[in-house]
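Rotation project, supervised by the postdoc (A.L.). Task for the rotation student: set up a whole-complex structure prediction and record inputs and outputs verbatim in this book. Inputs entered:
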Amino acid sequence: MYDPTVARLTYRALLGRRRALILFTLPALLIVIAVAVRMFSGADDQVASDVLGGFALATMVPLIGVIAGTGAIGPEIDDGSVVYLLAKPLKRPTIIVTKLTVAIAVTMAFSAVPTFIAGIILNGNGQQVAIAYTIAALVGSIAYAALFLLLGTVSKHAVVFGLVYALVWESLFGSLVSGARTLSVQQWSLAVAEKVAGGELVSSDVGLPLAVVLLVGVTVLATWYAGQKLRTLTLAGEE
Amino acid sequence: MTTIRIDHTSRWFGNVVAVNDITMTIGPGVTGLLGPNGAGKSTLINMMGGFLAPSTGTVTLDEKPIWRNEQIYRQIGIVPEREAMYDFLTGREFVVANAELHGLGKKAAQEALATVEMEYAQDRKISTYSKGMRQRVKMASALVHQPDVLLLDEPFNGMDPRQRMHLMELLRRMGDAGRTVLFSSHILEEVEQLASHIEVIVAGRHAASGDFRRIRRLMTDRPHRYLVRSSDDRALAAALIADPSTAGIEVDLTEGALLVQAVDFGRFTELLPQVARDRGIRLLTVSPSDESLESVFSYLVAA
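Outputs recorded:
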């Protein structure tokens, strides 16, 4: 279910293009914010939680997920170079699972690692805040990568839809309509973080069992469906 | 024997019918798929390559369906028309990756690069390649597993004459070795030079099939229309119409020219300068008025 050549091509495509700049910029921004906050307001658990929850988990993780998830397959389908993968005796789900693995690894590396570093800078992992949000970022990375990889497989406008989901649905609707929060990867990840932190600082609108079911369900379904779509991917000619 | 069989196959996109009830068999040797732009050649090749499902009918390789059958690619090599091909890799990295995806190693990749004579530039990034170089690396990636069937969509586009000759030679060798090679083109001369067998597609329909000489004859024997200007149009017209190679002549007063309809192309092209010289008439303009490929093809459809 994993092909090292597909993985190598995907890594190089993801980290070699302009989109890699955004991959580096967002975590750098988070670290800068963390340093600034620490300098101006000292080590404060609540502030640390606000920064990590408000910026790292709510904005950075989904954005990195959009870039890595859609970028792992979208551009290849758009420009047609995916034909070189498809014209091989290679099971379509293997291509998807490999690309998902790469997308997850990249999302984790560029979101969970900086989240942990920022947490340490902010309050030295007081009340397990840094660990909690890092785990939330790790868990979120998996679901986001699967979701956005599917988007990249089915739509030419995957980045736009991804951004709309990440920014409009999760951030805007999530803050206005409480029901929207149930259908939010961010809230599911927070449920896991809440369990880890244990205290009052991290909280989610979704219970842990439901969150886990939804995380696993969405990841598995999205991956399965992306594999199906790739099997019947139509590469229209130039005509 | 590796044979692609297309059986009563159609493909439509919404209301547009790209391929209309085509039945053909592509066997070993080099086959040219000829047709004007937009005739449905790419659609047909995409169906043979397993990238497009037929709307109706079947496309099979030795009785095995091609659509949704990834194992078929052990036998098929594809050279797509589109340019995109992992530009951030070097030529060698690209061909090695293609070899690995077939479960082969660097040796197979190196052989394929040698076959297309791209070793000299194999360590340069593909983004720096010319169109002809890209075409050859694409070719190497398709040859890496020595497929029985090679499908090429407009392979000569953008190649210079030397590269074209080289690729033709390569395809000819593959055909002679008993592989099934199919390439599409909208240029008659290309197809004529290379293919022993031609399939003509016009407006999604199968217009003609067979030996290129027969098709060439069909194309050249059709009535040709010429626009002729001379120092004495009427005297020329009288002399031309006396010969059976000319079916009709119209004196176009507004154009100040003759519109000649010739039925025997070979004879007419010899007759015209002879008649003019014998009668001391100077020819000012001789231009075929329906030489566009489309008109040639539409004649074929009617034939």
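Student's summary: The CA atoms of residues 62 and 76 of chain B lie 12 Å apart.
Supervisor addendum: The interface with chain A takes residues 13, 18, 37-43, 45-46, 49-53, 68, 70-74, 76-78, 80-82, 84-86, 88-89, 97-98, 100-103, 141-142, 153 of chain B (CB under 8 Å).
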